[in-house]
Design a protein that fits this description.
Blueprint lengths: L35 H17 L1 H32 L2 H12 L3 H58 L7 H42 L10 H7 L6 H9 L4 H10 L11 E3 L2 E7 L6 H5 L2 H7 L7 E4 L6 E7 L12 H4 L12 E6 L4 E4 L6 E5 L5 H12 L6 E6 L15 E4 L3 H22 L10 E6 L2 H4 L19 H12 L5 E8 L8 H6 L2 E4 L5 H8 L1 H5 L15 E5 L12 E5 L4 H14 L18 H9 L4 E3 H11 L1 H4 L4 H11 L4 E3 L2 E5 H20 L1
Parallel strand pairs: 7-11, 7-12, 8-9, 8-10, 10-11
Antiparallel strand pairs: 1-2, 2-4, 3-4, 5-6, 5-14, 12-13, 13-14, 15-17, 16-17
Helix pairs in contact: 2-5, 3-4, 3-8, 7-10, 12-19, 13-15, 20-21, 20-24
The protein binds adenosine-5'-triphosphate.
The site of adenosine-5'-triphosphate has 14 residues, from helix 12.
Amino acid sequence: MTDNVVRLFKDPPTEEPTTPAPTLTLAPEPSDKPRPVRVFVRSRRAVVGAVKHERTRQAARLTVRHTSYVIGGTRVVTRRAWDGRTGARYERLLRAAEAAGNYEAAGEWEERLHRFRTERHKRRMDLLTAPQDMAKSAAIGTAGGIGGLIAIGVALAIATKDPSDVFTPLMALIELIRLLVVIVQMVWGPLVAVGPFLALAGLWAVGRQRATAPQWALPATARANDAGAPITPSVVVTALRDLGIAPLRNAIKEMGDAGAAMLGPIRIAGCGVEVDVTLPSGVSTEEVQNRRKKLAENLARHEHEVFITIPEAARTVRLWIADSGALDEPIGPSPLVTDTTMTADYAKGRAPWGQDLRGDAATLSVFQRHLLITGLSNQGKTASLRALALWLALDRRVEFRIADLKGVGDWGMFDGIATVLIQGPTDDHVIDATEMVEGLVAEMERRLQAPPGTKFDPLIGIVDEAQVAFMCPAVGDDKRPYGGSKATSRYFMAVRKVHNQGRAVDVLLWEGTQDPTDQNLPKLVREGAHTRISLVLGTESQARMALGDKAVDGGAAPHLLRQGLDKGTVVVASDGIKIPAGQPSITVRTHFIDDTAAAEIAQRAKDLRDGVTTLTAVEPSETTVDALADIAAALGDESKLLTQEVLRRLATANPGEYREWTFSDLRQVLEAAGAPPRKTDGRMVVDAGRVAQALAQRADETPETAAQ
Ligand SMILES: Nc1ncnc2c1ncn2[C@@H]1O[C@H](COP(=O)(O)OP(=O)(O)OP(=O)(O)O)[C@@H](O)[C@H]1O
């Protein structure tokens, strides 16, 4: 047939060998038996599933719980029995008193132990002769008893004229004894069978009552109720024991049940309870303070619900434990809002500011105290500072000069109350604020020079967001910077002066600052305030800046407040507020007065006043010093003078201004004027010629500058 085929291609491709068809193999029937590996996996899963199943867990919890009750109950009963028979109890209490450092109590327990041992010895000695005495007493008792019964029998026989009645009472007794034996024989069997179960039930009940089962094995309801459970001595002692401080744990174990001896009475304190804990020797109060979070968790509370402070008594910590969730409840409106007739008294009054943690009203006296409030941004700093100012504004004698270096209107309601109100964040506002504080200095100096006994109205300077002033880079015509914390820094120096001498003449400064650092809140400024207040802060070192080391070492912990949640909660270190004895600080939840309410209170303050014209800038104060001219004066007739000597003369002439000047401040001013100090014989001197030349040059330049 191939001959008849006409090929369409010249050289048709030779036929490719066809690929062999794939060999199809019959797939084995899926076997019912899973492969060994799958068996393993499946069984593992099944086991894990079964173990994790809630019912299994419940069963495990049930078994462990009830077994623990029985074991724990046995332990408790054995211990009680052991305690009853031996001096173990006295020994334990002796050790507890020793561990708590209470040597007086330890001596008492030792004496009791000694007495117990002596009496026990006497009892044991008595036991040696007891068998003979018992045998004798038994013989005498039996003979007497039989004799008595026979005597009754004789009397009976005489009465009945029947001699057999002589033994009737004796026989009746014998019959009674036989009856009792029969009864005991009948009851004994069931008693022996049921007895162990009754004993077991008794042990279980004791274990249950003493809660000897582990926490996780308790029923879900009991576990859930644990959060916010009432604070009992046992809860506090257990929480302290499990704090992870080895000497504390060992001491509490030594004390056993007597661990509660460490605790003072648990007192209701506001929305929580308060208890003093005297720590055993070897445990420092600081160690407990450092474990606040763990302590709070052990007490089934959140960290912010437990406060640890150090009262006066040695080796003692004071725990304040909030009722669960109580701190998140609002504290209600300010009396300033609710009582529209309220007035204030700068000298004798106290600002109704908020509530302390015990729920008592927290009132602050602002009399002759400089004030500093710090905190992170947006936590209620301005609101709490403003609340104080609003109260004080209700004393018509008080003059306010206010610089708000944020300037979004938080202090706007003081327009018409304050004599100066600067609002804004720019360098120009800082310059105005600096001049405002320098104005306070001028007023302070005027008052200081007044005849003794002169009365002045209180003058309160407020600088909110004072960090803006400290960080301001602007430099004045006299080359002195407005910001910074050098002896030439104008804002800093003005604040220092008010801090140093303003109190006595009622010229006070209240500053609010944010997120403190050494740069935006210099140490001397922090320490110049008498009332130091802190809202939540980021770190402990910031807390130290805000409140001082003493307060933080004594338990003040604004860094442990919750950002965003504890808005308006402040920690205060001041003698202007009632603080529990021995504590260096107190935590206060301030009343929030919003802008509308603040405006209403401000209106009441305005109504009390005769109408105040508020300035939005101040005339530069005359107190601004001319450092270069002062240096020239200090040089006197000398052609050159050692820098130390120049500094000394400056400080003598004007201590308020120059006492804190260092060599670098002097050099800075001289260099800026073009008359830097030079070295002569290896020592730095100020050249009088150069200074005079700089002064002359400045005098030449001044008219030009003025003309511009
Ligand atoms: N006592 C308070 N109780 C509850 N909430 C408050 C309290 N004080 C302030 N707040 C809330 O916090 C917000 C911020 O307050 P405020 O402006 O006083 O904070 P601030 O710390 O001055 O902020 P910043 O310095 O960043 O401007 C308020 O708008 C208010 O909602």
